[in-house]
Automatic annotation (TrEMBL), chains A, B:
InterPro entries: ATPase_NBD, ROK, ROK_cs, WH-like_DNA-bd_sf, WH_DNA-bd_sf
Organism in which the protein naturally occurs: Streptomyces pratensis (strain ATCC 33331 / IAF-45CD)
Transmembrane segments: none
Protein name: ROK family protein
Classification of source organism: Bacteria, Bacillati, Actinomycetota, Actinomycetes, Kitasatosporales
Similarity comment text for this entry: Belongs to the ROK (NagC/XylR) family.
Tree of life domain: Bacteria
DNA sequence: CATCTTTGTCCTGAGTGTGGAGAAAGTTGG
DNA sequence: CCAACTTTCTCCACACTCAGGACAAAGATG
């Protein structure tokens, strides 16, 4: 199969490609209703796109009371690769041009093993997806990493939890290996993009997407666009202080949110409680190495264990306290909570909501939904595909 | 004098008007260097603007080694009115089309007296400025109010410190009275616009502007544009909790930033200290009613009074704590501190900086200037003029 | 005074985009 | 089965935008 070579020649073509991506196949007439162009001009641009091969006309749609329309759709062979590198695992997926996930793989891996080892794994997973017949090659790839990124260059900068990646040319290296364009971003931003494209945040212009996994981060969307900040570290809320003289944090400070609540902190607290005999439910779930995860806490809570419930409530209060501040400051139209701890579900959500609704101003909370992400592990890879498609579907 | 009737007919004309506003008089050739247009096209658009009377060609500039250029400038008779309504005083200013302040009045007044009384005062001040010969009429007016605003309609919504203004049609009423277009915004946003236009924030795309006066608010600029949030309450940081079981706040919660530090809280603390005999410097400054202001505290601190210095340091710590969180979240390129307490100067700034640099991530603070606003009371009115000129200098 | 530089104007030609006429293809009702 | 109406799509004429070059105007320089 020939890979995507052309790019839209102007903004009209770019807009058409995005309409087809987000709205699926469509007739010329329907496209005309959604874009501010005359039918004649539209036809010209569609014809040019057909010539490039980026879109195809296949078959006729059912009549709507008159002449049947030609179905215009994005080239069915286009394939994007979405990669989401977490602290403890890797997600890789293939999508079509409409960003529907055709295949998805997950592999546990510690990001601290460094870029070379991780890349090897990513490429192996991509090869596996290709071998399964889902793609003959990739037209573009998006990749998320758990740390700040200098976005234009696609290079991680001073990432606390993956020091070995500092300055590693992720974009260039992956582009070389895959032979296609690549865009790199923070994993939290990609989750936000994913939920915006296919999840709970559709049609919301300004929202926050709080991802609670091994660490805590927050994707910020302003006017439909991800906001990355001056140095690419916007949304790094894990080290906001929630307790004046709280626990020591890996960053060197005390009382950071991440030190009090996150996947890692929760697991540690649960293990302590189990060992101290404060919770038989949790103790029963200890594995051979004496370890627990957020999943265990969720299970214990579901079984009614009061200690587990307390841990979740306490954590939700801490996160809610920070989110309350962010809501007052940012006045979003929606707050999405996702990441590994989504499994804690409505117990977590309830205490977050309580804090936010109590502490923030009524005007800001009046009509503010606080919800769990609906895409789970697909959010990151969908966002990654969205990132590269946004790039490729812009004028060259 | 005839008032501004025409509006730019297209984006080119709008951009030209803004170039002339921000860069002052200019020749066609120099404008051509700053705008992406051919000389011929540019000449056409300039001619059209000359026809409308929005710009004029007056005289020839000195030669730069060849034919002398015609000076193109915005119509010299254009006048904008900038109004900044604070909690305890009103600022009104007249500017020319380049937003230079030609005249400026200040009048103490309690905003709680309600919109009717305040409007009367504002109109009297505007009339006074007009009578002094600075303007024969106004081509537009911008007005800032100390509370959230539904921006498109120009109506305050649920403003805590000025309940009588809720839903009052500020834009429509003022437009009627003045007979010119009016735009309304939060006073903090206007301060940010002012500092961006003529102050410390020139050429910074993303920054925060913290205004500490009677209350505390924060202007948010993203990509050069003010961000107002979903309901217009973005930046309302006065009620972020800084102390878990802190002081009772007027909003009904405990431990709000505003309850611990703001012009009002500082004055109260200083009065308490003076009465309790903990500070002779402050006691000496008590007025007949036993009242003090931030200015008194600044003076006492300048005289070396340890209690006053402590109050400032403590307050700076509280504000710094909140700003540190915002810096982590928003990753701005600059933080500006302004408002009534600017008089506390470098004592305040020092403790804010200490908190922020200690608590926020190095990547976010690495190259982050935290500075005092440089426009003082002119910031608000300049921002107001900028607001309305941005509106009028956009395609109709 | 000839030459060079800078500024501003005019003209042509390529491209962009609109709106209408009308053909193509289909549905509906008598 | 046919006439009338709809919807979709194509084609064409015309207006407008815009770039780039030729050229005129006005001054500096030697």
């Amino acid at each position: 199969m020939r890979r995507m070579t052309a790019r839209p020649a102007n903004t009209h073509q770019a807009r058409l490609l995005r309409l087809l991506r987000d709205g699926g196949p469509n007739s010329r007439a329907q496209l005309g209703d959604q874009i501010d162009l005359s039918r004649s001009k539209l036809a010209v641009e569609v014809d040019r796109l057909l010539e490039t091969g980026l879109v195809v006309a296949d078959g006729l749609a059912a009549s709507r009371g008159g002449r049947r329309s030609h179905n215009i759709r994005l080239a069915p062979g286009l394939r994007f690769l979405g990669v989401d590198i977490g602290a403890t695992s890797i997600d890789v997926a293939v999508t079509n041009a409409e960003l529907e996930v055709l295949g998805h793989l997950n592999h546990p891996m510690d990001v601290r093993e460094g870029p070379v080892a991780v890349f090897e794994q990513v490429l192996a997973m991509a090869a596996k997806l290709r071998a399964s017949g889902l793609a003959e090659g990739f037209d573009g790839a998006g990749i998320g990493v758990p740390g700040p990124v200098r976005f234009p260059e696609g290079v991680p900068v001073a990432p606390p939890i993956m020091p070995g990646w500092d300055g590693f040319p992720v974009r260039e290296a992956l582009s070389q290996e895959l032979g296609c364009p690549v865009m790199v971003d923070n994993d939290v931003n990609l989750m936000a993009l994913g939920e915006q494209h296919a999840g709970v945040a559709r049609s919301v212009g300004d929202f926050l997407c709080v991802k609670i996994g091994t660490g805590i981060g927050c994707g910020i969307v302003v006017g439909g666009e991800v906001y990355r900040g001056t140095t690419g570290s916007a949304g790094d809320i894990g080290h906001i202080q929630v307790e004046p003289d709280g626990r020591a944090c890996a960053c060197g400070n005390r009382g950071c949110l991440e030190a009090h609540f996150s996947g890692a902190a929760l697991a540690r607290d649960a293990e302590d409680a189990a060992r101290a005999g404060r919770s038989p439910e949790l103790a029963a779930r200890l594995d051979g190495a004496g370890k627990l995860t957020a999943v265990d806490v969720a299970a214990a809570a579901a079984a009614g264990d009061p200690t587990a419930l307390d841990l979740i409530r306490e954590g939700g209060n801490k996160v809610g306290q920070v989110i309350a501040g962010l809501v007052s400051f940012f006045n979003p139209g929606l707050v999405v909570i996702g990441g590994g701890v989504t499994g804690l579900g409505h117990n977590l959500l309830a205490s977050v909501r309580t804090q936010v609704y109590r502490q923030s101003l009524p005007l800001a909370t009046g009509n503010l939904p606080i919800v769990l992400g609906e895409l789970g592990p697909v959010a990151g890879v969908t966002g990654a595909a969205r990132l590269i498609s946004d790039h490729l579907f812009s004028p060259a």
